[in-house]
Amino acid sequence: MEFPSNLIPDEASPEWMNKGDNAWQLTAATLVGLQTVPGLMLLYGGMVKKKWVINSAFMALYAFAAVMVCWVGWGFQMAFGENLVEFLGKPDHVTLDQKFLLDQAFLGYFPNATMVLFQFMFAAITLVLIAGALLGRMNFIAWMLFVPLWLTFSYTIGAYSIWCPDGWLAKLGVIDFAGGYVIHLSAGVAGFTAACWVTIQT
User: Fold this and answer.
1) 13 CB-contact burial (10 Å; exposed 0-12 / middle 13-18 / buried 19+)
2) What residues have CB less than 8 Å from 199, skipping those under 6 apart?
């Protein structure tokens, strides 16, 4: 019995890919993205005084957009790429390569393109959660500098250490299915620290 033409493997749908796994990863990524923009963006705009509404909403929108650029430029490889040190991968722009994006991801039966998108959503929401601690307290230009720096020198370290199979905490058996450490704990500590620092400075 032959498969229908839409189920026959081809370049866009290789034999190793599970369409159900791929569809679910893309669905999950979309739901996380909707929590971020417009979800948190609208929430933050409604939490602050009228004079801070635009600034607060754009802090979330900018973080989402800036993380996307940094993530495909070097962030994904620092979080999931080749080992540089025990807690960080080598920064590389290979994420933009078509061959890399169509290859099987290091985990699961879906392509790297899906994994890059899925992990980008988590990186983005982490920065947007930090923004919640700085609403009405931080200059937008300072936030524009903070986002790529924190993603590069903090988030990628946590993601590589725990989520990447080569990370030192992953090798010790640390498991973080829901982002409790990589996302929520790191965002909470960073937000608290940043809010304290900004408050002291003012």
Assistant:
1) middle
2) 137
Q: What are the backbone angles phi and psi of residue 10, rounded to the nearest 5°?
A: -150, -170
Whose tokens are 């991968």? That residue is 89
Residues 6 or more apart whose CB falls under 8 angstroms from that of 144 comprise 62, 66
Q: Which amino acid is at 23?
A: A
- The C-alpha atoms of residue 70 and residue 56 are separated, in whole angstroms, by 21
Peptide bond just before 14 cis, omega within 30 deg: no
Q: Provide the Cα torsion 16, 86, 189, 74; round to 10°.
A: -60
Q: In the chain, how long is the greatest CA-to-CA distance?
A: 73
pLDDT digits over 147-198, tens only? Answer: 999 999 999 999 999 999 999 999 999 999 888 999 999 999 999 999 999 8
102 to each of 3, 13, 115, 116, 154, how far by Cα in Å?
Answer: 23, 9, 11, 11, 28
| Predicted confidence (pLDDT) per residue in 107-151, tens digit | 889 999 999 999 999 999 999 999 999 998 899 999 999 999 999
